[in-house]
UniProtKB/TrEMBL annotation:
This is Orotidine-5'-phosphate decarboxylase. GO terms for biological process: 'de novo' pyrimidine nucleobase biosynthetic process; pyrimidine ribonucleotide biosynthetic process. It holds the Pfam family OMPdecase. One of its GO terms (molecular function) is orotidine-5'-phosphate decarboxylase activity. It comes from the Bacteria. CDD domains: OMP_decarboxylase_like. The keyword ATP-binding does not apply. It comes from Microbacterium aurantiacum. Its EC number is 4.1.1.23. PROSITE patterns: OMPDECASE (PS00156). Belongs to the OMP decarboxylase family. Type 2 subfamily. It is an enzyme of class 4 (lyase). Residues 17-273 form the Orotidine 5'-phosphate decarboxylase domain.
Length: 296
């Protein structure tokens, strides 16, 4: 079984960093001529999957925009997740789950167990009940060949006060930020899993609109982890910014874009994906034959 980190590395080398969000906002459903309904969300998601397959390697459905419809919304999401995985896309369920004990075990079973109706390739999680609360989820993901992206430095400004707060954990690095403490714990999990210099299966969410160094997220603590970076596109960061923002770790960044891609509408969606992917190639990020999968 190929590890999640290896799959991400292969995807980045082939397609480049663009990760397409699947976010059926009410206004986007309207703009696309779809109803603000479970059926509309399902149709929206399936159209994004069709456009993304062969053009990017990773998609990221935002669970909240399906969950708002209740059981029918989850049924729609199940269809989108299954279709995306069947199309060969790596699917990150952006659910930001985080809890303790058996409750977190339940979330992990729902999103990361092979054969589950909500099965994804990776899940976003929150560490703010304590990074140790995620231990079983992280180790379980490694065992199953799945991935996890742990929130570290998010792109919303109101998070900075918490994520840059200083810790007093004398058993670890003294006087480090909360974000750095999270990243160090993730580095330990990836290292202990012994992936031989490859990307590990446990990644971090690091916003492209924050100064990661202010959060203590230096190259050394991020090395070896896939990085999911919201903030590109509509939030202001550009593909040309990626090398400057991430420096030595830029080669393992997934640049998440949603509104900047989805606003093109269904008729122009494939062209917009190609356009955004080309901007990352122009920035010198793509190592492999990004975009060459149009023959598939």
């Amino acid at each position: 079984m190929s590890s999640f980190g290896r799959r991400i590395r292969e995807s980045l080398d082939r397609f480049g960093p663009l990760c397409v969000g699947i976010d059926p906002h009410p206004h986007l459903l309207s703009d696309w001529g779809l109803g603000d309904s479970p059926a509309g969300a399902r149709d929206f998601g399936l159209r994004v999957v069709d456009a993304a397959a062969g053009r990017v390697g990773v998609v990221k459905p935002q669970v909240a925009f399906f969950e708002r419809f209740g059981a029918a919304g989850f049924a729609a999401l199940e269809s989108v997740l299954a279709s995306a995985r069947a199309a060969g896309l790596i699917v990150i369920a952006d659910a930001k789950r985080g809890d303790i004990g058996s409750t977190m075990d339940g979330y992990s079973a729902a999103w990361l167990t092979p054969g589950s109706p909500l099965e994804a390739d990776a899940l976003t999680v929150s560490p703010y009940l304590g990074p140790e609360s995620l231990r079983a989820t992280l180790t379980g993901a490694v065992r199953l060949g799945k991935g996890v992206f742990v929130l570290a430095a998010t792109s919303n400004p109101e998070a900075a006060a918490l994520q840059t707060a200083r810790t007093v954990d004398v058993e670890a690095e003294a006087d480090q930020s909360v974000a750095r403490r999270v990243a160090r714990d993730i580095a330990w999990v990836n290292g202990s899993a012994a992936f031989g210099g490859e990307l590990g299966p446990i990644g971090l969410v690091v916003g492209a609109t924050v100064d990661r160094h202010e959060f203590g997220l230096t190259d050394d603590v991020l090395a070896g982890a896939p990085l999911l970076a919201p903030g590109f596109g509509a939030q202001g960061a550009t593909p040309a910014d990626l090398p400057r923002l991430f420096g030595a770790v830029a080669a393992h960044v997934l640049a998440s874009e949603s509104r900047s891609v989805l606003s093109a509408g269904p008729a122009d969606l494939t062209a917009r994906i190609d356009e955004r992917s080309a901007l990352y190639r122009d920035a010198g990020i793509v190592r492999g034959r990004a975009g060459a999968a149009h023959d598939g």
